[in-house]
Amino acid sequence: MPNMKVMDMTGKEVGEITLSDAVFGAEVNAAVLHLAVRQYLANQRQGTQSTKTRTEVSGGGRKPWKQKGTGHARQGSTRSPQWTHGGVALGPKPRSYRFSINKKVKRIALQSAFSSKVETGDMIVVDAITASEYKTKTMVNMLKALGSEKKALVVLADNDLKVTKSMANIPGVKTALWNTVNVYDVLNCDKFIVVKGAAEKMEEVYA
Q: Of the candidates 176, 166, 178, which has an alpha carbon nearest to the alpha carbon of residue 142?
């Protein structure tokens, strides 16, 4: 079972926590991680791109010249795909890119993502993150003290508006509740900062 130091908001060690092997010490399954990331990114796509076919382009109602005797190739409309200002033959139309994966696979992917952060030493456990007022500077100082000055994912145990709004405009920093964490955000961050209470809840649900 991985043992981790528990830090406070000033970067001082205030204790230790033993994490579950099932959630934070699992074998990293690269294939499942790849599938989970692909699903997340596909589900973010709006799928609203669209092009006009020859029936949707305005004009082209009259046959440009008679069928025979002109020496030209026969043409039925000036809005056929081979004409300038014609329709698009096989262009994209609105569609959904969504696909789903099994709950069991999702769980394995999350376990692998959490475990990879523990393996690389990029997971930080904090005893509590609090804010008495809406103040970005407080959160910037906390991140500096924890050694996280690049991309960070901060996982909270409860929804605290003062904390989330204070972090909202820090570049590269994202906050999430323990039950809304996704694989892509975990892998995409440089530091995975988890409140102790959130880590305990994640162990209960994802073990």
A: 166
pTM value surpassing 0.90? no
Residue 113, both tokens: 């993502």
Six token digits for residue 123: 């997971």
Determine whether 101 is exposed, middle or buried from the number of CB atoms within 10 Å of its CB (0-12, 13-18, 19+).
middle
Distances (CA, A) of 126 to 47, 96, 186, 193: 39, 40, 17, 7
User: In a 3-state reduction of DSSP, which class is residue 166?
Assistant: helix
In angstroms, the CA 23 to CA 114 distance is 7
> Residue 91 and residue 68: Cα distance in Å, rounded?
31
What backbone torsions phi and psi does residue 183 show, to the nearest 5 degrees?
Answer: -60, -45
pLDDT of 131 higher than 70: yes
H/E run at residue 177: strand 173-177
Pairing between strand 191-195 and 152-156? parallel
Place of tokens 């409860």: 158
Token pair for residue 6? 């528990």
For residue range 147-161, what is the model confidence (pLDDT) as tens digits? 888 899 999 988 889
- How is residue 49 written in tokens? 């791109």
Secondary structure (3-state) at 198: helix
